[in-house]
Amino acid sequence: MEENGLKDTVLGLYHLKKWREILKLNENSSDNGALKLLWVWPDEKNLFFIKRIVNDLACEGISSIGCGCGLLEWIINEATGLPVLGYEVNQEWWESKYSNPKFIKLNYVLNINEECLDSKYAILFCYFNDRDAFQKYIKNYRGNVVFIIGPGKENWKHTDPKPFSPDFGGCEWDLYSYQEVKNTGDYIAVYVRHNNYLNI
User: What is the pLDDT of residue 90?
Assistant: First the structure.
């Protein structure tokens, strides 16, 4: 499927709320512009892993940092019912005619501070690529649960932070659980703040 054809198909399925059908579009290939819409293409098992973690750790929803067009976030919400907020910094780009269509309402962040991060929500970084910004978000986050999605050790793709070797800028976070995204070599890693672990 050509890139524009894929985008049009995704948009059509999005308007029909057919998230399962969207996930099936990339089962056999990732060289058709799919990465411009989703950096990871999870399956239902991955989505319900996220839901279980959020519920088990008593979070009320997810704040996704650097969410891009928000397709992953929309799919998580549709599949699990979890509230998902999406945050981006470059409003000029995302409101321009050149950007991908937006699948959720984007919240634009000019200054990273604790007021823009609900402590009752887990925060999610999917293929994030700015360690300094990541550490600023972590420093200002008062909640206890962080999801990091990205490549495993054998995967050639670049991201920062990586799921299994993030630099939180401190030592108060522990790996809680993880799951591979299908058999792609990408992983969903979950970290909890260890000084609050017993209170989660």
Answer: 87
pLDDT of the residue at 115: 65
Taking residue 68's Cβ as centre, other Cβ atoms within 10 Å add up to 22
pTM: 0.91
- CB 96: neighbour CB atoms within 10 A? 9
User: What CATH architecture is 40-199?
Assistant: 3-Layer(aba) Sandwich (3.40)
| Regions of the chain with pLDDT less than 50 | 29, 31, 198-200
Closest CA to 55 of 29, 81, 35, 31: 81
Number of Cβ within 10 Å of residue 156's Cβ equals 6
Listed by start position, the domains of the chain span: 40-199
CA distance 107 to 109: 6
- Per the listing, tokens 């976030």 go with 73
Task: Give the Cα separation of 24 and 61 in Å (integer).
Answer: 25
